[in-house]
Amino acid sequence: MKPERCFLRPNYEISQVITGLWQVADLEKDGSNLDLEAAAENLVEYASEGFDTFDMADHYGSSELISGRAREILQQQHPHSDGTPKARFHTKWCPKPDDMTPKVVRDAIDERLDRLGVESVDLLQFHWWTYQHPGYLDALEGLMMAHESGRIANIGLTNFNADHLWVLLGQKIPIVSNQVVVSMLDQRALEEMTDVAMKHDVKLLAYGVLAGGFLSERWLNKPEPSDSELNDWSKMKYKRFIDETGGWENLQSVLRALKSVSLRYGVSVANVATRWVLDQPAVSAVIIGARLTESQYRQDNLAIFSFVLDEEDRSAIAESMVGTSRLRGDCGDEYREPPFLTASGDLSHHLDSLPSVYEPIAVPGKSDRTQVFSGTKWEKICGHSRAVRIGNRILVSGTTATHGRDEIVCRGDARGQAVYILDKIKAGVTSLGGSLSDIVRTRVYLQNAQDCEAVSLVHGRYFGEVCPANATFEISQLIGDYLVEIEAEAIIEE
Q1: Which of 24, 58, 110, 424 can pair with 63 through a Cys bridge, CB separation 3.0 to 4.6 Å?
Q2: pLDDT digits (tens, 9 = 90+) for 451-491
Q3: What is the reported pLDDT for 26?
Q4: What is the mean pLDDT of residues 395-415?
Q5: CA distance 103 to 83
Q6: pLDDT value of position 294
Q7: Using H for helix, E for strand and C for coil, what is the string for the chain?
Q8: Of 1, 14, 55, which Cα lies nearest the Cα of 290?
């Protein structure tokens, strides 16, 4: 028996259980590297048993180098007819937010190709730390060019939310997958993300399905561990998920239900938790972490495919989760907004800081006034700033979905334009010392009244907890080929 398989796109087949290599970084956090040959041979063992799809990232320690060596061994032992190995190697690029010039993108791809020892990356998954910085559009335009030239076989995302996946699809980026957390404790991806993914045939690759191992027999009827007992990054991270979604007793309720179901089929609690995720309509595969040269659970993971959950099982599981609180925001927001549900509780393991998107400039002759510019051609032509701060007030100009000097984002799509606009407004306000919660008024101008619901839903996702005063208008004609324009005002409490 081997893991079942699925297609991310026609002619691109992967295992439905992807072997995750995040824990390589944890195993190497003392500064030492795993033995390259031993770890690579370990991956070869996984591949020989059908677990032949591997997930890693630019910051997962030496995982790309290990995978590159494993690929060499597999190429010698079990090649396709064209000489390439049957295994798939997926990696990620998670750059610091900055200007994504063609050279920056090219160098990042070159590094992935070099470390993996390939001429084309099977799947390159892109992560971005803050949507306020629009550089992600330039980065993905660069990845699309690399895809067209054959240096990247497939473009994926990781930790993108539904609205920004929508923006990228509106930009005609050929996204095949989005890697996001999906588990019984975090079901955000089963909401709007599932709708967008299924509409556009984007496959979800689910990680965190076992919540760092907490969704297993090991923790059933066990006391809550202290911080000192959490000895790896995965447990540190997902204990924060547990705390946010209902606490330890709520976890125990879920575990008891999973145990009851597992006994019906003679499988493990982890098997049931994983099967539940795989049954979600937009989920194509699950990522289960491997501690190379240490614990291996391949045989247990095969049991995922030995049973089918029925309606009684699903009802029992759903009932156990009644006390579970929904995590804030959408997929991946735990990496962008507090509370940061990371191993460290902040972004210190990833970034020194998030740079300001725009540089505040003092207004000549006005000691209490600063302004920012976003660089569109209209600012120069019309003689206006993107936003200006006067004392504790920030006034944001009417803003359209203009990227860079004059590129229209999501041409013909009001929802995508609204997302880009509100990110731009947020960038202007935060660059001047404010925050989204300081915004007290917005005005929305629509070319077409039929776009009101789509744009209003976006506005609600940004301001649902802030609830500023608002007015929305249909007007006869916006200047330029735009469907939406928004202005805002913020007051900073001092």
Answers
A1: 24
A2: 999 999 999 999 999 999 999 999 988 988 899 999 999 99
A3: 82
A4: 97
A5: 31
A6: 65
A7: CCCCEEEEECCEEEECEEEECCHHHHHCCCCCCCCHHHHHHHHHHHHHCCCCEEECCCCCCCHHHHHHHHHHHHHHHCECCCCCECCEEEEEECCCCCCCCHHHHHHHHHHHHHHHCCCCECEEEECCCCCCCCHHHHHHHHHHHHHHHCCECCEEEECCCHHHHHHHHHCCCCEEEEEEECECCECHHHCHHHHHHHHCCCEEEEECCCHHHCCCHHHCCCCCCCHHHCCCHHHHHHHHHHHHHCCHHHHHHHHHHHHHHHHHHCCCHHHHHHHHHHCCCCEEEEEEECCCCCCCCHHHHHHHHCCCCCHHHHHHHHHHCCCCCCCCCCCCHHHCCCCCCCCCCCCCCCCCCCCCCCCCEECCCCCCEEEECCCCHHHHHHCCCCEEEECCEEEEEEECCEECCCEECCCCCHHHHHHHHHHHHHHHHHHCCCCHHHEEEEEEEECCHHHHHHHHHHHHHHHCCCCCEEEEEECCCCCCCCCEEEEEEEECCC
A8: 55
In order of 13, 15, 41, 438, the CA distances from 53 in angstroms are 9, 6, 15, 46
Cβ atoms of 160 and 178 closer than 8 Å: yes
Tokens of 431: 């660059």
Give the tens place of pLDDT for each residue, 233-265. Answer: 889 999 999 999 999 999 999 999 999 999 999
Fold type of domain 361-491: 60s Ribosomal Protein L30; Chain: A; (3.30.1330)
- Tokens (6 digits) for 415: 């929802």
Buried b (16+ CB within 10 A) or exposed e, 342-351: bbeeeeeebe
Is pLDDT of 79 > 80? Answer: no
Return the closest-CA partner of residue 417 out of 405, 426, 408: 408
Q: What is the pLDDT of residues 86-118, one digit of tens each?
A: 799 999 999 999 999 999 999 999 999 999 999
pLDDT single digits (tens) 295-312: 667 889 999 999 999 999
Domain ranges of the chain: 5-335, 361-491
The pLDDT of 141-167, averaged and rounded, is 98
Angstrom distance (rounded) from CA 8 to CA 174: 12
In angstroms, the CA 136 to CA 279 distance is 31
Task: Please determine, for residue 10, whether its predicted confidence score (pLDDT) is greater than 90.
Answer: yes
Domain over 5-335 is classified CATH 3.30.565.10: no
Per-residue pLDDT tens digits for 180-224: 999 999 999 999 999 999 999 999 999 999 999 999 999 999 999
Are the beta carbons of 100 and 138 closer than 8 angstroms?
yes
